[in-house]
Amino acid sequence: MSAAPKIVVVGSVAAGTSAAAKARRGSEDAEIVVYDRDADISYSGCGLPYYLGGEVESMDDLTPRDAAWFAQRYDIDVRTGREVTGVDAAARTVTVRDLATGTTSTDDYDELVLATGVSPVVPPLPGTDADGVFTLRTPSDARAIRTWIESRGVERAVVVGAGYIGLETAEQLVGRGLDVTVVEMEAHSMPRLDADVADRVDDELTEHGVELLTGAEVTAIEPADDGAARAVRVVGRDGAEHLVEAGLVVVAVGVRPNLDLARAAGVRVGDTGAIAVDRVGRTSVDHVWAVGDVAESFDLITGEPTWVPLGSTANKMGRIAGDALTGGDLEHRGILGTSIVRVFDLAVAQTGLTEDRARAAGFDPVVVHNIKPDRPAYLGGQEMLIKAVADRGTGRLLGAQIVGPSGVDKRVDVLATAITFGARAEDLFHLDLAYAPTFATTKDPVHYTGMALDGAVTDRAALVSSADLDRRRGGGETIQVVDVRSAKDRARSAVDDSVHIPLAELRGRAGELDPALPTVTYCNKGVTGNAGQNVLRGLGFADVANLSGGNTTYQRHVRGRGLPG
């Protein structure tokens, strides 16, 4: 690298501008040029759904910086309305087209940074080119959708896809007073979550008036006489096709990396479908770097390449590459895919591996469903579900999913930090977390999660999930299931084929049970079930597990498999 390199960056959102700004901090001599085909730069893409609903009033709030700002603050030349159409890696040049004039030119570079991001996936369906059909990726998209709603007086909308963008969009459209249908091909919303967590998100959507069609596929968008969308044709779970009326369709089924320039440069694309890079962002081609959503990261737990396009990760990758470009020693340490989204009155968060992904990665997952309030009930505490996963062999904490109306962000960040530094289940109890009744319980939900997980890992307090109980029974295993709740609670609902012995009577009536049989105790959420488990173990029952998440989680599981609760 020359003493004063010329750095060309393609793309000016999170990763590209972070790379350019950090490179300038590392070198006052470098010439830094940033190209972007769009007029908006360094914008908050994650805030775009909230512009649709008016929670963000002005697009200026999401686009606070322009080319002049970067020139004044960093002496960086940001050239908007310029599309880089080609790369000659051997000559170290890029071809640039001025979108206003149509003219092309060539620019040279010493180091090239590809921060080309992603594009929304639009399925090849009839009608996707109709007016009123949108994706949501850029400020221009958000402006167009809001203008369409306001100018056409739209009353009904269909959102295709129930991931982060789809659900945020649905929430905001409901807030505008629209009737909203969400169509999702998978069996539940938020497919990155385990089903027994996502079902709570499904319930939240329906409780707020969203028509949620899961296990359903859009086959066409029907236009009206004026060419605008009027209905979406959907094939449901039962195989029947029907029309959902809509004056607006937002397609949010996912994104894919923009790889045209990467292919032109000859860089290697990884198995994830994104550009393969090392820990500072170098590609397989000398002097070509890749950062942000277009590039792979690696999983902090498994060490394997992964691709989770998030703004937080893009910012880190850009900063690291900008540092390395100017002689720094920062390196990317991997990601857990930590994320959080608001869905009406719920916060939905995850970090690390889900149960399904942990099993697929070769771990023997131990799982706890911990239902606890974020703070004491006397100060308005509200329950959250923490589903946490650890490795049975080592006790290593692998991941967590959390759903609740309050305090979710705090707990997921604590757990993400613990996983990052290799914590085991037993370590969680020993964390010195902040406590005051206005903020937390004396034993925080994180503490309880660690206690329950550690008990399950060491088999001092074995847990069984509702799905595992079903599976074992379905395989012909005889398991005695003991309900230790009150008669009042049992009258509302109960685990199939369970016997009722309230906890206060369990010692005196334990003779009614067979100590040689595998036994599962349960209560409403898990605490009293664990007390019953301890009583039976103390009386010589060798194989006693507590039902993870209690009857609350079991009844959700029952509904999920289509049986009466």
Automatic annotation (TrEMBL):
Keyword Plastid applies: no
PROSITE patterns cross-referenced by the UniProt entry: RHODANESE_3
InterPro entries from the UniProt entry: FAD-bd_OxRdtase (IPR050260), FAD/NAD-bd_sf (IPR036188), FAD/NAD-binding_dom (IPR023753), FAD/NAD-linked_Rdtase_dimer_sf (IPR016156), Pyr_nucl-diS_OxRdtase_dimer (IPR004099), Rhodanese-like_dom (IPR001763), Rhodanese-like_dom_sf (IPR036873)
SMART domains named among the record's database cross-references: RHOD (SM00450)
Cofactor(s) demanded: FAD
Record flagged with keyword Oxidoreductase: yes
Pfam family, one: Rhodanese
Keywords: FAD, Flavoprotein, Oxidoreductase, Redox-active center
Domain (Rhodanese) ranges: 475-563
Similarity remark: Belongs to the class-III pyridine nucleotide-disulfide oxidoreductase family.
Name the UniProt record assigns to this protein: FAD-dependent oxidoreductase
